[in-house]
Amino acid sequence: MSIPEFLLEVSIVVISVVSLLTNLSVLLCFTQSAELRSHVPGIFVLNLSFSNILLTVINMPATFLGVAKSAKPFGDLFCNAVSFSETFITTNAMLSMAALSMDRWIAVVFPLSYSSKMRYRDALLIVAYSWLHSLTFSLTQLMMDWGGYSHTYASCTVHLDAEEASQLTAYATFTALFHCSSFALCLLVLCFAYLKVLRVARSHCKRIDVITVQTLLLLVDIHPSVKERCLAQQKKRRQRASKKICIFIGSFILCFSPYVLTRLVELLPSVHIPRYWGIATKCLFYAKASSDPFVYCLLRQQYRKVLVSVISRFMRKDQYFMSVHSTSSTLDTTDDNCVARIT
């Protein structure tokens, strides 16, 4: 085994473990908090988390075996099923991210009419469209028999065998439409929604800044350190929205664009994609599943509160059982001593 292959295998294992733990933590937060379940965006978060868990359980182990064995991990039937699931899951996950960005846009730009524009029924319809959209491409791939093992990516994915060169035009059209309707469409929605949110956030910050400056001018006797602290908080407030939106859009581009561009470039007959590059882009593609819980959930105060309360409850129960066990063992020891003295 070469060093690059070993590093790629370790990367897949680490990404799989982190993705499984973090996405299960998101589901745990939803089961333990009625407040989170009452929010409409929770439907999109649940859909995204389920997609990431399925990707972690089904596709990542298959890719790990493909890298380790340098060959197809199992038979053709299993490989077709894995490639079908990858197409469906990744498309569904991207559309869930786009739905979350649109929900945030409506909540920030139209706060007074948000409850009428985004209801539970509307969210369920969006999720249903996401599933239908994903099934359309995955079923088309299955019917055309374009799923199989790709040595370039060491995984079961959308793939055209060399023996089927006559279908190259149809396959190229399908691949272009697939990535345009998933990656490109979702990127366009993310940029539109979050840039609108950023514009509104900046306008609010400007209003707050004006009020802060006027207040500081009126308070003549205020200490200079307090003024400096207010100005520092003012600067942090301006940068906070920009940082969050850069994380939302930047993580999407960083994780998905290398893989998508590689899949489009490999359609050219004269281009050969190196195997290590293909697997590396696949690992980066998988890394989005492990970063989504942090980007959309676990870094928020509501989720952190629920997760900390669950962990603290678990720790208290564990300490209680340990104290009960130690007490019972002490009582048993005392009884044995009493019996020994009597005899």
TrEMBL record:
GO terms for cellular component: plasma membrane. Residues 22-296 form the G-protein coupled receptors family 1 profile domain. This is G protein-coupled receptor 78. PROSITE patterns: G_PROTEIN_RECEP_F1_2 (PS50262). It is found in: Cell membrane. The keyword Membrane applies. Keywords: Cell membrane, G-protein coupled receptor, Membrane, Receptor, Transducer, Transmembrane, Transmembrane helix. The chain crosses the membrane at residues 6-30, 42-68, 88-112, 124-144, 176-197, 245-265. It is a multi-pass membrane protein.
